[in-house]
Amino acid sequence: MLKRNVTLLLLSLFFMMTTSCSKEDKVSCTTCRSDQTPDFELCKESNGNASVNGEDTEVPYTIYLSDLENNGITCQ
């Protein structure tokens, strides 16, 4: 009986940990190009900030992307 309870507890904990993190860790990335710069990766991090080549810019993604586009950089 104790072994069954421990197994159920461990399975419950595992399930809660895997389902609660899945939405928070969502990151979407795109490649950006410009004649003046090498290609780089722009990502929207789970906190809503933009990151460039893995470095958090501490700027909201929508603002960062808009600024890039206003400067003639294409992201797809």
Protein architecture, described:
There is one protein chain. With 76 residues, this protein is α+β, with helices and mostly antiparallel strands. It contains two helices and five strands; from the N terminus they run αββββαβ. The longest helix is centred in the N-terminal third of the chain and has 21 residues.
Q: Calculate the terminal CA-CA distance, rounded to whole Å.
A: 56 Å
Helix content: 40-55%
Counting DSSP E segments of at least 2 residues, the number of strands comes to 5
* SSE order: HEEEEHE
Mean pLDDT: 81
Main sheet attributes: strand count, strand direction, barrel closure:
5 strands, antiparallel
- For the biggest β-sheet, the strand order reads 4-3-2-1-5
Shape: elongated
Structure annotation, total helices? 2
Strand content: 25-35%
Radius of gyration: 20 Å
Helix-strand layout with pairing:
Elements: H1 2-22, E1 28-33, E2 40-44, E3 49-52, E4 55-60, H2 61-70, E5 74-75
Antiparallel strand pairs: 1-2, 1-5, 2-3, 3-4
Keywords:
single chain, 76 residues, alpha+beta, five-stranded antiparallel beta sheet, 2 helices
Concise description?
This protein has helices at residues 2-22, 61-70; strands at 28-33, 40-44, 49-52, 55-60, 74-75.
